[in-house]
Every structure is written in structure tokens, then in C-alpha cells.
């Protein structure tokens, strides 16, 4: 248990970060923004490295840790070292956890993932921001071309939405950054970007979002937490969280949100 009474779970940490971010002075806000975008680095970095990344002195970063409720950086780092966020164990370790718990039979796995999916979908129905959904549908349905990016774990969602838009006759382009070609010059005035990324956030996705937002192009982002770095970039945020089993996360709620968004955009374009 935290000696200082600071956050004791990653969810509590994120809630606290969101609570304090808006009222922080410039230097401490830099710390908050850097931590929100780089939570995966906390467990493996020194306070000097985190401070350098945030562009502040180590003393300012230590002050930020105290505002977050910790006695110092080492206590905050301990929370992340004991958690799987942004640095979830590799797949062999996850499988080992399942074997140790004797939870690896096909029927048991099916039951557990069905339950995780059910809980994820119920949570989505309760927490989805309907106003943000309306804004997102408007931005995408009015776009000349919808550009879609989602890498690694997010790629199945991005490719599915590109497929759905194609079938509905909605002009869309899937960006895969193959060969480090991000095709950002293909995004023109009147277009919109749909970015999908989850912690640890894809650097390529964040870079593309930053580039197009600087040009005033609207961005709709499907992401996992309200403290996602995409928020400070001015994207329209649609947050979705997945309940995990054995440190494995499915895409049940994310794909549900994806098809909802796709169909809503296709319908809006037909009505328009």
C-alpha cells in the first residue's frame, strides 16, 4: 500500500492525472503531458530521464510526483513496475500465467473471453460519450476523404473500418506506414483523419495526428483513456476500454464501436 496515500492502481493514477492536469502551472503541465504520452517509460526510466523527456528540471518532475500523491518518483515507478500497463508481459509470460492457473483449456478460455467481452461491451454502453460520437460522425461524414491509421493491435480495427467504408461507398484510405511511408501528403484540406491507438500509443500514429492537426484537419481518435496524448492534440476522442483475461485483451468493445461509427457515417452521407 502506498505510504503517501497516492494512486494504487493504474486506473486511479489516470483518474488523478486527469483531475490535476487542468490546473497545473506550465512546467508541471509539461510533466503531466509527457507522462500521459509515455506511461510505458516510467517503469524503466530514471527521474532524470523522465524530466529530460518532459523538458523540465528533475526537481520539477519530483514536485509533479508529489502532486500526484506519491512521496517521490521511486514510489510512482513502483506502481508501474508492479502493473502491466503500457508494458504488458510478452506473450510467453502471459501463456505461462494461464498454465500456472490451469485456465488454458479451450472451453475455459472461451468462457473467460466471452465474459471479458460481455463486460467490455456493457462498459462501452454505459460510458460512451454520445456528444463526442455526434461530433465524430459529423466530421467524418462531411469529409471529402477519410484517412484511417491504426497500427499493431489497432490494425484489425483500422482495416475493418476501411473495408466497411469501401462497401458503403464512403471514400477512405488506409495508412499502413509500410516502409516508413506515412503518406501524410495525401491528406488534403477537406479530408479527415481517423486514428486508432491504445496504450502504449503508436509513435507513428501520434506523429501523423500531430502533423495533420497542425494543418487544421479534423481528427477523430478511438483510444483507451481520457488522458490519451491525443486529447491535447485537439482530436475528437472516443474512449473504449477492454476487460482483459490473463493479460490478454480482445477487441470486442472496440470493434463494436468501430462498426457503429462506420454505419453511422455511411448513413449520414446517404441522408446528406
TrEMBL record:
<dbReference type="GO" id="GO:0003677">
    <property type="term" value="F:DNA binding"/>
</dbReference>
<dbReference type="GO" id="GO:1901135">
    <property type="term" value="P:carbohydrate derivative metabolic process"/>
</dbReference>
<dbReference type="Pfam" id="PF01418">
    <property type="entry name" value="HTH_6"/>
</dbReference>
<dbReference type="InterPro" id="IPR000281">
    <property type="entry name" value="HTH_RpiR"/>
</dbReference>
<dbReference type="GO" id="GO:0097367">
    <property type="term" value="F:carbohydrate derivative binding"/>
</dbReference>
<keyword id="KW-0804">Transcription</keyword>
<feature type="domain" description="HTH rpiR-type">
    <location>
        <begin position="11"/>
        <end position="87"/>
    </location>
</feature>
<dbReference type="InterPro" id="IPR035472">
    <property type="entry name" value="RpiR-like_SIS"/>
</dbReference>
<dbReference type="InterPro" id="IPR009057">
    <property type="entry name" value="Homeodomain-like_sf"/>
</dbReference>
<keyword id="KW-0238">DNA-binding</keyword>
<dbReference type="GO" id="GO:0003700">
    <property type="term" value="F:DNA-binding transcription factor activity"/>
</dbReference>
<dbReference type="Pfam" id="PF01380">
    <property type="entry name" value="SIS"/>
</dbReference>
<dbReference type="InterPro" id="IPR001347">
    <property type="entry name" value="SIS_dom"/>
</dbReference>
<feature type="domain" description="SIS">
    <location>
        <begin position="136"/>
        <end position="272"/>
    </location>
</feature>
<protein>
    <submittedName>
        <fullName>Transcriptional regulator RpiR family protein</fullName>
    </submittedName>
</protein>
<dbReference type="InterPro" id="IPR046348">
    <property type="entry name" value="SIS_dom_sf"/>
</dbReference>
<dbReference type="InterPro" id="IPR036388">
    <property type="entry name" value="WH-like_DNA-bd_sf"/>
</dbReference>
<keyword id="KW-0805">Transcription regulation</keyword>
<dbReference type="InterPro" id="IPR047640">
    <property type="entry name" value="RpiR-like"/>
</dbReference>
Amino acid at each position: 500500500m502506498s505510504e503517501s496515500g497516492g494512486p494504487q492502481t493504474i486506473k486511479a493514477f489516470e483518474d488523478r492525472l486527469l483531475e490535476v492536469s487542468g490546473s497545473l502551472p506550465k512546467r508541471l503541465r509539461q510533466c503531466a503531458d509527457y507522462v500521459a504520452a509515455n506511461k510505458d517509460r516510467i517503469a524503466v526510466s530514471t527521474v532524470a530521464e523522465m524530466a529530460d523527456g518532459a523538458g523540465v528540471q528533475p526537481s520539477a518532475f519530483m514536485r509533479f510526483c508529489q502532486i500526484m500523491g506519491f512521496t517521490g518518483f521511486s514510489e510512482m515507478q513502483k506502481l508501474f513496475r508492479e502493473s502491466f500497463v503500457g508494458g504488458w508481459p510478452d506473450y510467453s509470460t502471459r501463456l505461462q500465467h494461464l498454465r500456472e492457473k490451469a485456465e488454458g483449456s479451450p472451453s475455459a478460455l472461451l468462457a473467460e473471453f466471452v465474459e471479458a467481452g460481455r463486460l467490455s461491451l456493457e462498459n462501452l454502453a454505459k460510458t460512451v460519450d454520445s456528444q463526442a460520437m455526434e461530433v465524430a460522425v459529423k466530421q467524418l461524414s462531411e469529409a471529402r476523404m477519410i484517412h484511417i491509421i491504426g497500427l499493431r493491435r489497432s490494425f484489425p480495427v483500422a482495416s475493418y473500418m476501411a473495408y466497411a467504408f469501401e462497401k458503403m461507398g464512403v471514400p477512405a484510405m488506409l495508412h499502413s506506414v509500410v516502409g516508413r511511408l506515412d503518406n501524410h501528403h495525401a491528406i488534403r484540406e477537406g479530408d479527415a483523419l481517423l486514428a486508432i491507438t491504445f496504450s502504449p500509443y503508436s509513435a507513428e500514429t501520434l506523429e501523423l495526428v500531430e502533423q495533420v492537426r497542425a494543418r487544421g484537419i479534423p481528427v477523430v481518435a478511438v483510444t483507451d483513456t481520457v488522458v490519451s496524448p491525443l486529447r491535447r492534440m485537439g482530436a475528437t476522442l472516443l474512449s473504449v476500454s477492454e476487460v482483459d483475461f490473463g493479460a490478454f485483451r480482445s477487441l470486442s468493445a472496440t470493434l463494436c464501436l468501430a462498426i457503429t461509427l462506420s454505419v453511422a457515417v455511411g448513413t449520414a452521407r446517404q441522408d446528406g
